[in-house]
Design goal:
Helix content is 42%, strand content 26%. The strands form three sheets. Strands 1, 2, 3, 4, 5 and 11 form a six-stranded mixed β-sheet that branches. The chain binds prephenic acid (PRE). Prephenic acid binds next to helix 1, helix 2 and helix 3.
């Protein structure tokens, strides 16, 4: 058979498969609309359309049953977008993120909710919390820890005064690039803008490639990218989204010192998420300043064999609490063995706040 004929046959096959996929996606969307009608029929004006535990289960199942040739992550990303579009038919989800447009936090929001979500930039982490608390948006996305630079204290501190719940987590591989605008004189770069964390994450690379260039910390990487549009002697360190948004040229890619540099983000909202089958819980515990306090606090977790994924200490912002510990662990508060440990921790702490149980990041 001629090459032309072979291509024609294969493309006819692809056209027919596409028609089937399209019909099935619309069938699925109709089901989601029916689900929405059932949720609304309860008469609850605050019916919950977004169900993090169900989404995690759907995505995990997609990955489990995948047999290739597309890899499981790629397949899950496609389903992520299908579900995002189905949810938008039920009710468009509005998500506040630490802006401006083009930040890694926006990339995390889109990774988690898919591109049918409406993402709204905020100028600070505090503002993301406030918008969700005020009900102006359904959810918020804030960074919480970076594998190279550690915890983002500002996010943790916000939980001390907030009644919001954590309803999800997202992990994002962070790649930094050095970029310039079309007016930049590449041989005359005298200043490099970026967020302080990003400058820190690229410190060694900067020391060896641009040792004498001034490093200027700004509010976000996207702000750095925006600034260099009008400065011929400046460059910026930012991610792909910012490079695309501001049409910048990447002159050095993946310049982060740690190749596995990643950031964890939290989804904050008002809902308590049921079990998904693979969950994490975050709590905040206040202890009095006395010897062995942390040991006493952690003992029930050890006895019950619960896997701790993070322990952070913050100074309390009220006189009454001396230390505040932020602890993440595997499990859901609805599981009896976790509920029992919470009871024990509550008895020895001066205060215990369960920030939320939520599905472990799938993608
Ligand atoms: O199962 C539901 O509750 C749905 O609304 C359907 C669906 C989906 O498309 O699969 C959509 C949105 C929810 O966040 C979870 C799942």
């Amino acid at each position: 058979m001629s090459e032309e004929k072979q291509l024609l046959n294969l493309r006819e096959k692809i056209d027919s498969i596409d028609a089937d996929i399209q019909r099935l996606i619309n069938e699925r969307a109709t089901c989601a609309q029916e689900v929405a009608a059932v949720k609304q029929a309860g008469g609850d004006t605050d019916a919950l359309f977004y169900r993090p535990e169900r989404e995690a289960q759907v995505l995990r199942r997609v990955m489990e049953r995948n047999s290739g040739p597309l890899n499981s992550e790629e397949m899950a990303r496609l389903f992520r977008e299908i579900m995002s579009a189905c949810l938008a038919l039920e009710q468009p989800v509005k998500v506040a993120f630490l802006g401006p447009e083009g930040t890694f936090t926006q990339a995390a929001a889109l990774k988690h909710f898919g591109h049918s979500a409406v993402s709204v930039p905020m100028s600070s982490i505090d503002e993301v919390f406030r918008e969700v608390e005020a009900g102006a948006v359904n959810y918020g996305v804030v960074p919480v820890e970076n594998s190279t630079e550690g915890v983002i204290n500002h996010t943790l501190d916000n939980f001390m005064d907030s009644g919001l719940k954590i309803c999800g987590e997202v992990e994002l591989r962070i790649h930094h690039h050095l970029m310039v605008s079309e007016t930049t004189r590449k041989d005359k770069i005298s200043r490099i803008y970026s967020h302080a964390q990003s400058l820190a994450q690229c410190r060694k690379w900067l020391d060896s490639h641009y040792p004498n260039v001034e490093r200027v910390a700004v509010n976000s990487n996207a702000e750095a990218a925006r600034r260099i549009k009008s400065e011929w002697h400046s460059a910026a360190i930012a991610g792909d989204m910012a490079a695309e948004l501001y049409e910048l040229e990447k002159i050095a890619e993946k310049i982060e010192d740690q190749p596995d540099n990643s950031t964890r983000f939290l989804i904050i909202g008002t809902q308590e998420v049921p079990e998904s089958g693979a969950d994490k819980t975050s709590i905040m515990v206040a202890m009095r300043n006395q010897p062995g306090a942390l040991h006493d606090l952690l003992e029930p977790f050890r006895t019950a064999g619960i896997d701790l994924t993070r322990v952070e200490t913050r100074p309390s912002n009220t006189g009454a609490w001396n230390y505040v510990f932020f602890i993440d662990f595997m499990g859901h508060v609805d599981q009896p063995h976790i509920a029992e440990v919470m009871k024990q921790v509550g008895a020895s702490a001066s205060d215990l706040k369960i920030l939320g149980s939520y599905p472990q990041a799938v993608l």
